[in-house]
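User: I'll paste a sequence; please echo it back and then give the predicted structure.

Assistant: Echoing your sequence first, then the prediction.
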Amino acid sequence: MIHFYLSTVDTISDATIVLIGVPDESKSLAKRKGTSKAPDIIRFASNDSGFFRREDKIIPVSPMRGVLENKKVLDLGNVRREELCQMIVDLVSVNKIPIIIGGDHSITSLALEAIGNTFGKIGLLYFDAHPDFVSSTRNYYGSVLTDSAASVDFKKSLLIGTRSAEAEELENAMRVGLEIITPMDIIELGVLNVTKRFKSKVNDKKYVSIDLDCLDPSFAPAVSVPSAGGLSSIDLIYLVKQAVESGVIGMDIVELCPDFDVNDMTANLAARILLESIASMKY
């Protein structure tokens, strides 16, 4: 396993932020395969892009905002899907912030179940081209919100970047009062107003889930189910930083499909999202 360079402590008791890889795509129906390779690819990209090397010196890259100093991060390595739920319960019960790197998006269902069992229903910021709110089929990467309904307060949640929804998903979102912000909405409202909207709706007991297909394929070609017309990379980074800065229970980054990358641009972007998220977390 590749060790994440920002991992600065050796034990869970010393950590505040805990990185967990879940190299599993068993619940994906995507034509593109390979998200199980993503956790170590993201680690490698982070390690490769996180430093400048000059005159035998290793100089770390600074985040755009926030700080990395004194962030107590532990990389727990990769775990099996079956281990994740109890692991998340154990972490959030002692006020650790898990960051999960997948893997297909169904792993979010396990994280939300664990957090919901611990704290009750929570708010959710769900960055995804797809609502993942299919109810006619269950227990796969397209039914995350249906499978997690007992753990999510939909009226205190937002779908962001959605643009490839099935009719039943839109019906399900409307039925539970789940607001959807499309990329067109972001163009019209601007990221500042979108930030104000989720800060007024979603409190500090929230989970942030990032399917990289929320991005336009021009920024992130290596995803399982690409969809044109998505977010820009800087808009996503800004929104995520604002979300975690205002308080977060946990987060994940999923659906990187490395075999379809172009010059590692998607992996490097995932690594940047990870760095900027850690830098902006407050606890």
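Residues 265-280 form the longest helix (16 residues). The radius of gyration is 17 Å.
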